[in-house]
């Protein structure tokens, strides 16, 4: 005889459904960016949602500002492929969540292939229509032309696009990394 379905099981099922929806949100983000689907991209963010580069290079507050950033970024960009590899949820309750997503990006820009390894620090909020990004903060391990990857991976200035070479935040900003190599 099986045990009756109780509130504990219902809660656990809801958490699994929420986890799946949040994974889909990250994958939908990649697809919307690669498809240049600004309508779909806008729907993934809360109206007051935020997007930033954690190094301070840019910050957009509000869905309209986030979409304007992407509208400008897409000009002159050829095909791109963004892939969300893994998601770790550190907080998940009924109305909000927080976690990290790692991924990669390949972009055709000005006749060059630009590659990046990325980590998003995300906060999520449930809306009437599902989970949305409340905030995305982007950090890079590297962002550079593909042909430079073999020669630059060991350097601190692994951000070599779109401006002059500059430092990246990962992994050097991670406390355990700094402690290990202290």
Characterization of this structure:
The chain is 32% helix and 41% strand. By secondary structure, the protein is of the alpha+beta class. The protein has a single domain (7-181), classed as Nuclear Transport Factor 2, Chain: A (Roll). A 6-stranded mixed sheet has the order 2-1-6-5-4-3. The N and C termini lie far apart (58 Å).
What series of H and E elements makes up the topology? HHEEHEEEEHH
How does the major sheet shape up? 6 strands, mixed
Gyration radius (Cα, Å) is: 18 Å
Strand composition percent: 35-45%
Helix content: 25-40%
Instruction: Detail the poorly predicted runs.
Output: none
Shape: globular
Quick tags:
single chain; 182 residues; alpha+beta; Nuclear Transport Factor 2, Chain: A; 6-stranded mixed β-sheet
Summarize, please.
The protein is α+β, with helices and mostly antiparallel strands. It is built from five helices and six strands, in the order H-H-E-E-H-E-E-E-E-H-H.
Strand-helix topology:
Blueprint: H1 7-35, H2 38-43, E1 45-53, E2 58-61, H3 63-74, E3 77-92, E4 96-109, E5 112-127, E6 130-145, H4 149-152, H5 175-181
Parallel strand pairs: 1-6
Antiparallel strand pairs: 1-2, 3-4, 4-5, 5-6
């Amino acid at each position: 005889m099986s045990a009756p379905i109780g509130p504990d099981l219902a809660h656990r099922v809801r958490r699994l459904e929420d986890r799946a929806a949040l994974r889909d949100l990250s994958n939908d983000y990649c697809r919307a960016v690669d498809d240049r689907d600004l309508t779909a991209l806008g729907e993934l963010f809360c109206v007051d949602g935020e997007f930033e580069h954690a190094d301070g290079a840019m910050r957009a507050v509000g869905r309209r500002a986030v979409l304007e950033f992407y509208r400008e970024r897409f000009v002159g960009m050829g095909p791109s492929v963004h892939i969300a590899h893994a998601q770790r949820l550190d907080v998940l309750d009924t109305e909000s969540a927080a976690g990290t997503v790692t991924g990669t990006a390949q972009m055709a820009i000005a006749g060059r292939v630009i590659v990046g390894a990325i980590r998003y620090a995300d906060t999520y909020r449930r809306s009437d229509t599902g989970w949305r990004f409340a905030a995305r903060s982007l950090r890079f391990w590297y962002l550079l032309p593909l042909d430079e990857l073999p020669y630059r991976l060991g350097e601190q200035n692994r951000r070599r696009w779109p401006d002059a070479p500059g430092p990246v935040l990962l992994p050097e900003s991670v406390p355990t990394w700094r402690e290990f190599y202290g």
